[in-house]
Amino acid sequence: MPDASEPPPAVHVRVDDAPSSQPPRRFTRAFAIGRSEGCDLQVLRPKVSRHHAEVVYEEGGWWIVDCNSANGTYLNGERIRRARLEGTCAVQLGHGGPVLTLQVEDAPEAAAPTLVRPDAHTRVHEAPTTPASAALPPPLPPSGAPREPAVPSAGGVPARQRSLDEVAAHYFGDSDEPAGEHTMLIRQAYRVVQQRQQQRWIGIGAAMAILVVLAGGYAVWQQIRANRLEAQLSEVYAGVRALDAEILKIRHFIAERGDASLEEQLEGLQAQRERQIALLEGYVEELGYRRRLTDEERVIHKVARVFNESEFVIPSSFIRRVREEMQTYWLTPSGRHRYEQAIRRAQQEGYPQLIAQTMLKYNLPPEFFYLSMVESDFDNRGAIGPRTRWGIAKGMWQFIPETAANYGLKIGPRQDDPIYDPADERFDPVAATDAAARYLLEIHSQLAGASGLLAMASYNWGERRVVSRMERLFQDIPDEVAERTYWRFYTEYQDRMPEETKKYVVRIFAAAVIGEDPRLFGFDFDNPLAPYLAPSGTPASPAAWTP
């Protein structure tokens, strides 16, 4: 048996479809595998359960244990519940699912035992050998001392001169040899007690077996129920995404053609979406996803929902980047000052009301407010970008001349000068915000599949660059609306997407997270958009905005 003080040999794990440049993970303690963010090895693939399997070190070796996964765990092609890992093994998470290669390092050889020899500091004591004939009877007790009570004898030998094992065998063993009446009574009484104890333990064992069966059955039922609910939740979520895409396409058509004849159809789709959202929330509540989240995680998940991304498969790397961006940018002393100043400036100018109502008019998330914040800090007149080959970006939405003109904005005569130009409509908050909303609406409806985060990436990177990569990414996916998510795009292209674009999306997302509950992050004001979000979801007219 290996020394318990020695660490177990390490296990190296590689996902077979991972990039070759990605080194295998190395574990020296038990680890969990699954889709859940809480797993040590998170595998976001079809067929993988939230908590699929565990690898544990027991009985001097590494074992893989299936955690009642929906699609099973296969070791070297055979489905297993629990199996020992030796050498290099192939573990498949579900039939047709991803394959992991696990390699167990060779265990270190046990150290040879150290022999201790007697020397000046150690002594070896040996019991003196005394011949049986030289054995002396025990000394009599001193005069006046109480004598040891007599013990019944058996077989002609006094019991106190016999070993306890011999006495136990004589009175309580299975021997049928003749004995005195007293001894036989003791044997019979002991057998009665034994029978009663056996019956008692049989009853306890049967009760425990029933409890184990019931508990196992309940656990299996719970797992089946959870899998069914998760499948239904995924189906409803896909339906919501499809409805959102259809709503945005109709809204874009109405905005382009000025045709209000489709408004009734639009209202019907929106009512259907509200029913689907209520159903989705019911599944989420029943599964208890959000009950396990911290306050900060709840806000992050809410912002993911706001921008129409699934909150249940957020890459853990994206969440880490959001937290890092908050801590290193928005929540530093200078970052807090910048955030507060931007919000105060926006509130003084009435921008939260203007932007929220305009975005809602086009069925877009009002939280695109934070895109303008990152672009310009809401310093409308001072928001003038550097000179580029596409011209100078100007205004709170940082339009370049060509894009601004495409969305109906009048370009001023000083477009090539890095100065404020009152004749340039890029500096008109109402006109520029409406143009930005229509631009985002087109990206949403034509490219992003209703993903707000993909729309942000397109706004920064250029929609033509994103669309070509999106087409390659989703060319083999039949239901592109349900699958066209920023999470997939981020996972597939994060090595090829410009760092500026990734940081841009994360910065807007982090600003929106803080804006959902500023007091949670140490600010002394509330959500600036909250007063302008109609509970029914019906947008107010942007004409009501007053600077």
Helix and strand arrangement:
Blueprint: E1 11-15, E2 25-27, E3 31-34, E4 41-42, E5 53-58, E6 61-66, E7 73-75, E8 78-80, E9 82-85, E10 88-93, E11 99-104, H1 164-172, H2 181-257, H3 263-287, H4 295-306, H5 316-330, H6 333-349, H7 351-361, H8 369-376, E12 384-388, E13 391-394, H9 401-406, H10 429-448, H11 452-461, H12 463-473, H13 480-483, H14 486-493, H15 499-516
Parallel strand pairs: 3-4
Antiparallel strand pairs: 1-2, 1-11, 3-5, 5-6, 6-9, 7-8, 7-10, 10-11, 12-13
Q: What does the main sheet amount to?
A: 6 strands, antiparallel
List the total number of helices.
15
Based on the structure given, which CATH architecture of the domain at 293-544 is correct?
Orthogonal Bundle
The main sheet orders its strands as: 2-1-11-10-7-8
Distance between the termini: 79 Å
* Portion of residues within helices: 40-55%
**Radius of gyration from the alpha-carbon trace, in angstroms:** 38 Å
Summarize model confidence as the mean pLDDT.
Answer: 79
The computed structural class is alpha+beta
CATH-defined fold name of the domain at 293-544: Lysozyme
Give the strand tally. 13
List SSEs in N-to-C order.
Answer: EEEEEEEEEEEHHHHHHHHEEHHHHHHH
Task: Identify the overall geometry.
Answer: elongated
What is the CATH top level name of the domain at 293-544?
Mainly Alpha
